[in-house]
């Protein structure tokens, strides 16, 4: 239970008044009577197909969180004045479910996503608790597991495929006043997805954005909120017209253009060291960088490789990776290339896991000079470090390699309120 102070008039407050938090024990389940056909894996487009069911709960400032529901996927009815439409009071997460060797679903480090969603919701004052988390992350994770079990048949049992999970919280206060939303809607939807690279890893090209910024100090760059994404659509379109795949976001720091992110992904570079090892460098979490789960995982397994706790596929255990969270600029990329030290550059995120970078186009808005920085190429598309960390993460996700409890299988027991013969349709998905 969360608590709030309740106004009783004349400026006086009475409290604390208990406000219900998310409660998995109150879950109700209504299964679809018309389960959809699952499309062939080769036809899947990221986010283009949704599974049969969704999870929904709403927040009211007086009654707190409603009893959560799992019900057939479908549209919502919202007031046109809702703050989610007017002021972008929206936050979301991206995570995936996999099928392990035991046939049970698996989630990759889901507590990280729940914690980040809670931080993002708090940043947008969703819901309007004082000094409290917006929801119980453990409760939401339990509910997500139940949803995944119900729609387990939607998880492609093919290497490189998964079920994408999109938890979302939106503000639903139906008034135009510019203030925090005291009403909210939480929902979770699922979408089967295939590998980011359908024909194998292909290096992407980036256009460094000197005229636009993704985030700025004191803003919301370190949170996964909807308002961070729409402003990037036009620069992305401009980049595509110039023959680039994505935007490399920069931030001006005195006389340097600091590298921040690539599209909606974190960035890493691999640089030769004097001792023959590699430096693995990514920009620091300075408030403008999203703390990606894949980013954090790569830093951890790079350190584990160097300390001998594991060996990355394709890398000699004696070739150490020294992870660093420190700023670097376009000028550093240029210098490392001219010195022959820049071995790899890659972007990382939930969707792609790892995307190698082949070239970076840069036009300084002061000098008006445009040129491409061309990175070393590799026959298989990825360099040894990017390939090694990608393979290790995928192996952990799919249960081929167990590491530090990052990805365990589960089968949630469901309390099902039967509707017709829906319980028979659930069948093998409940335990």
From TrEMBL:
It comes from the Eukaryota. The modification N6-(pyridoxal phosphate)lysine is found at residue 224. One of its GO terms (molecular function) is branched-chain-amino-acid transaminase activity. Its cofactor is pyridoxal 5'-phosphate. The keyword Lipid metabolism does not apply. Gene3D superfamilies: 3.30.470.10, D-amino Acid Aminotransferase, subunit A, domain 2. PROSITE patterns: AA_TRANSFER_CLASS_4 (PS00770). Coiled coil: none annotated. Its EC number is 2.6.1.42. InterPro entries: Aminotrans_IV, Aminotrans_IV_CS, Aminotransferase-like, B_amino_transII, BCAT-like_C, BCAT-like_N, BCAT_family. It catalyses: L-leucine + 2-oxoglutarate = 4-methyl-2-oxopentanoate + L-glutamate; L-valine + 2-oxoglutarate = 3-methyl-2-oxobutanoate + L-glutamate; L-isoleucine + 2-oxoglutarate = (S)-3-methyl-2-oxopentanoate + L-glutamate. GO terms for cellular component: mitochondrion. Keywords: Amino-acid biosynthesis, Aminotransferase, Branched-chain amino acid biosynthesis, Pyridoxal phosphate, Transferase. Pfam families: Aminotran_4. Belongs to the class-IV pyridoxal-phosphate-dependent aminotransferase family. This is Branched-chain-amino-acid aminotransferase. It comes from Lentinula guzmanii. The lineage of its organism: Eukaryota, Fungi, Dikarya, Basidiomycota, Agaricomycotina.
């Amino acid at each position: 239970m969360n608590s709030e102070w309740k106004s009783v008039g004349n400026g006086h407050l009475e409290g604390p008044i208990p406000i219900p938090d998310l409660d998995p024990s109150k879950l109700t389940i209504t299964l679809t009577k018309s389960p959809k056909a699952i499309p062939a894996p080769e036809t899947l487009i990221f986010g283009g197909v949704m599974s049969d069911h969704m999870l929904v709960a709403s927040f009211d400032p007086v009654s707190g969180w409603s009893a959560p529901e799992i019900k057939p996927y479908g549209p919502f009815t919202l007031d046109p004045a809702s703050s989610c439409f007017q002021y972008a009071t929206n936050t979301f997460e991206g995570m995936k479910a996999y099928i392990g060797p035991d046939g049970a679903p698996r989630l990759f480090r889901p507590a990280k996503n729940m914690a980040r969603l809670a931080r993002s919701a708090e940043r947008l004052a969703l819901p309007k608790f004082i000094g409290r988390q917006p929801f119980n992350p453990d409760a939401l994770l339990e509910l997500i597991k139940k949803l995944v079990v119900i729609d387990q048949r939607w998880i492609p049992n093919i290497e490189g495929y998964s079920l994408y999970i999109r938890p979302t919280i939106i503000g639903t206060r139906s008034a135009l006043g510019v203030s925090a939303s005291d009403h909210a809607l939480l929902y979770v939807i699922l979408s089967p997805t295939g590998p980011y690279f359908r024909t194998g890893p292909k290096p992407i090209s980036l256009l460094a954005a000197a005229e636009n910024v993704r985030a700025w100090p004191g803003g919301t760059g370190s949170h996964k909120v909807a308002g961070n994404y729409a402003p990037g659509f036009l620069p992305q379109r401009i980049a595509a017209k110039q023959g680039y795949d994505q935007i490399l976001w920069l931030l001006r720091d005195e006389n340097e253009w600091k590298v921040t992110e690539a599209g909606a992904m974190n960035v890493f570079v691999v640089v030769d060291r004097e001792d023959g090892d590699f430096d693995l460098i990514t920009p620091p979490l300075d408030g403008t960088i999203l703390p990606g789960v894949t980013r954090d995982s790569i830093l951890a397994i790079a350190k584990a490789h160097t300390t001998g706790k594991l060996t990355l596929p394709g890398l000699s255990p004696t070739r150490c990776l020294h992870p660093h969270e420190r700023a670097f600029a376009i000028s550093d990329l240029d210098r490392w290339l001219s010195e022959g030290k820049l071995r790899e550059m890659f972007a990382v995120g939930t969707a792609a896991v790892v995307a190698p970078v082949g070239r970076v186009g840069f036009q300084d808005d002061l000098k008006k000079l445009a040129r491409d920085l061309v990175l070393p190429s590799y026959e298989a598309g990825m360099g040894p470090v990017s390939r090694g960390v990608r393979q290790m993460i995928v192996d952990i996700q799919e249960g081929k390699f167990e590491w530090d409890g990052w990805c365990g299988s589960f089968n949630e027991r469901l309390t099902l309120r039967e509707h017709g013969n829906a319980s028979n349709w659930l069948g093998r998905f409940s335990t």
